[in-house]
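Hi support team,

I've been running sequence recovery on a batch of backbones for a student project. Most finish fine, but this one hangs at about 90% for roughly twenty minutes before it completes. I'm not sure whether the input is malformed or the queue is just slow. I've pasted the structure tokens below so you can try to reproduce it. Let me know if you need the job ID as well.

Thanks,
M.K.
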């Protein structure tokens, strides 16, 4: 919680201490968010980019270096997630008794990506948690690897540019600058509430 509420101070300290290595760390964070699906929900994706943009507006960070490092991390993370999904897919979706990991759901996923693959990959990049799972599912369903990488690269670049730019432009507004920590925590809570609300709604609909 202390890290989430002091992301701007954390980034400033990291930059003062490690210099250009900070951008490598940013890339590593987004690589883990996309490439290791079980770590994605615990990493501050959108919030980190927004705060990095706001910190860049204060003259501490280079916004272009933030975008480059984050985009490369997200792109290579997606590739690893896809390859992991392609490797584990046959092993994961073999239990007919499983509610989630069975051949029927794998076939549904394949049909979905055959029809909406590119758009699904692109839109998932802007949705927390989902962007950590989509590469694995895409790989498991044998989506075209080249098509996946094209949409993955374009969406990663668009996501990092938009999120960083929003932080850069809005971070200079006094109210946002003074309440940046609470805005970060609030954005995380909104995501959590949205996911839980969706799960509850689906459960009630099934009943």
């Amino acid at each position: 919680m202390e890290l989430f509420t002091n992301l701007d101070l954390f980034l400033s300290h990291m930059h003062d201490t490690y210099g250009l290595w900070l951008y490598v760390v940013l890339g590593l964070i987004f690589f883990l968010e996309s490439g290791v699906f079980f770590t994605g929900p615990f990493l501050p994706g959108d919030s980190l980019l927004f705060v990095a943009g706001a910190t860049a507006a204060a003259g501490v960070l280079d916004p272009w270096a933030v975008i480059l490092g984050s985009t490369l991390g997200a792109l290579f993370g997606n590739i690893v997630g896809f390859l992991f999904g392609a490797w584990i897919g046959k092993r994961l979706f073999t239990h007919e008794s499983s509610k989630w990991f069975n051949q029927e759901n794998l076939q549904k996923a394949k049909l979905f990506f055959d029809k909406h693959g590119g758009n699904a990959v692109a839109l998932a990049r802007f949705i927390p948690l989902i962007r950590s799972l989509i590469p694995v599912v895409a790989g498991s369903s044998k989506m075209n690897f080249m098509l996946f990488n094209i949409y993955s690269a374009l969406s990663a670049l668009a996501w990092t540019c938009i999120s960083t730019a929003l932080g850069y432009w809005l971070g200079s507004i006094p109210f946002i600058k003074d309440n940046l920590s609470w805005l970060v925590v609030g954005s995380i809570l909104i995501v959590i509430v949205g996911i839980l609300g969706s799960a509850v709604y689906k459960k009630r609909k099934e009943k």
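--
Follow-up from support: It reproduced on our side and the slowdown came from queue contention, not your input. The radius of gyration is 18 Å. No action needed from you.
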